[in-house]
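Translate sequence into structure tokens.
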Amino acid sequence: MTTLRLALIKGPVYDPFYQRLDLFSRATGIETEVVWHLPWHELLETLQTNYANPQPEVPIDLVTSHSKYAPSMRRFLQPLDDLLTRQEIARFSPAAIDFARIDGLLYALPRNFDVRVLVYRADILTASQLPPTWVELIGTAVRLADVPHDRSGFVFTGKMSGLFGSFYELLASAGGQLLDGEFRPAFVSSEGEWALGTLRRLYQDAATAEMANYSYDEVAFAFRDGRCAMYMEWPGFWSLITDPGTSKVLGRIGVALYPLGPTGRKVYAGSHTFAITTSARDLPASVELLRFLTSDESLLTEARVGSLVPKPSVLKTVMGEAAPDSIEAIRWQALQTTMENYSLLPPKMERWPVVEDTLWPALRQGYMGELDIHSALERAAEAITAALAVRA
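Result follows.
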């Protein structure tokens, strides 16, 4: 009997989907073994270590990947163009498939399309009161904050890649660049100062001190727990916000597009994917599992708990299930509009994880006030320049 070894991302928004593995095994007779089930950055580090040499210590058949980080994983991912039909690939959103291509080759199939929208407490902020710009959002967040009673006006991820992403969005919405054409830091600028200054004002005047240690899960929990008036939400957390067992704000939620920056609206975009490795021991069985996990039925399961799925036909089905003018319909429209018009795509560079990991500590010092804004940006630029000068 064939047993496929898997390495999967862990988290409350991802784990329920893996129940489908039992359905796959019952339907095909192919067993699965989850060798690693870890939060994303731990999983990426584990896979990079495992595949540091041509012969991996633990051969894995199928892995969770991500469009932003796939270039750093490419050496152990199996190209898929000759393993799938054109018709199969054409069922996915062209943008999501483009995310998964590197130098023209398809290295994964997308599981979702990740962009954020503004989620707010509709019982303390009406739709007509929504701040249309980031500048106005600061004022609204400060007004709604009640820090002595543990309520923030706005929260963002205080560290790691989530912090990087918020800065990147703000920088781009001000017309700034992160890197120039030679991959050199370009954010020590007036646009960079505006972006980091925005985060600093939100943290210092509209959030509780503990926000500096928030990861994605803690940010979402703060809103669900009634301790936050506004935040930017990833699609996968919707099922938790709308679950009476995990949400204290059920029925008091509003959704809207991101505010506008000085030059427009930008939202950091990416795509979680499934990929087959070069060490796959049974390639046909691995492809069969890949097809199952990204099938219409599987992705409809994802969509019904809130994920923005990368197949237009499936997305159309789930959008059609939402009652007109309901919060679900408003949310789907906001997500689709964001995906089609405001996605901020990172460059496909092998060392993108280095950029994210190197930048955020200095940004954190800047918004917390440990460094002035300009010094924080300069420190971040120096760190990235040094890190990228060291070959992996």
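Note: The CA atoms of residues 26 and 185 lie 51 Å apart.
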